[in-house]
Amino acid sequence: MTLEIIQYILLGISLAAPIGPVGIELIRRGLKNGFLSGFLVGFGAIFADLTWAFIAYFEIANFITIPIVRTVLWLSGAWVLCYLGYKSFMDYSRRIELEELGNTEHKNSFITGFLIAISSPITMVWWITVAGSMAGQATNGLFNISAIIFGIFLWVCFLSMLLHWGKKFVNEKSMRYVSAIGGIILILFGIYFAYSAYLSITIL
After folding, report:
1. CB neighbour class for 53 (10 Å; exposed up to 12, middle 13-18, buried from 19)
2. DSSP string of 7-36, one letter each residue
3. What is the tens place of the pLDDT at every residue in 97-134?
4. What is the spatial distance between Cα 114 and Cα 203, in angstroms, rounded to a whole number?
5. Which residue of 4, 89, 167, 171 sits 20 to 30 Å from the alpha carbon of 10, by its own alpha carbon?
6. pLDDT per residue over 190-201, tens digit each?
């Protein structure tokens, strides 16, 4: 039982570790504002994971198989990512006062992480596949999902602390480059989501 829990915790870490849209925003805000801002982005994403896990585990995800619903999800994800990417990229063109950063953006970091993750069809498909397969495992299924979530939480804490320490070595110029590169990557993810929405429309 203990070994099985450890395996699912590692699965959660492996899910969170690859750098996707949430990771990009966590890194950008963590370097810009410190631990709390980055952590809240990740914590918001964890709540989105819990939402999709709940939907999948209790087998109420049938509506997601409707093509128009998938299209709306792709388009929502595209809009969120392109908007955040644009805001991040615009930081490159203005002076960033590092001494003022610690008190900014905390208030919307949680909702930003939640919106990125909840509108991501990639997150949706992952949880429907994994949590859906655990639906018949009764209590063990809930324990395993909890272990996955805990693994994600551990990774968010680790990465947020790492970025908080790394912030000490970041100057105004390098922060502008981080914002620009992060913005471009988020916009590229948004374009990918928009293209996926287009493909969904063509098969309606």
Report:
1. buried
2. HHHHHHHHHHSS--HHHHHHHHHHHHH-HH
3. 444 444 555 668 999 999 999 888 778 877 877 766 66
4. 29
5. 167
6. 898 888 778 877
Residue 15, φ and ψ in degrees, nearest 5: -70, -40
Query: Residue holding tokens 């964890």?
Result: 46
pTM of the model: 0.76
Task: Please give the C-alpha separations between residue 124 and each of 55, 73, 74, 110, 121, in angstroms, as whole numbers.
Answer: 10, 9, 11, 19, 5
Helix (H) or strand (E) holding 104: none
- The dihedral region occupied by 34, where left means phi > 0, alpha psi between -120 and 50, and beta the remainder, is left
Could you give the C-alpha distances from 178 to 69, 73, 120, in angstroms and in order? 34, 28, 23
Q: Please give the pLDDT value at position 99.
A: 46
State the Cα–Cα distance between residues 182 and 187, nearest whole angstrom: 9
In angstroms, rounded to a whole number, what is the distance separating the alpha carbons of residues 130 and 57? 9
Can you give the residue ranges of every domain in the chain? 2-202
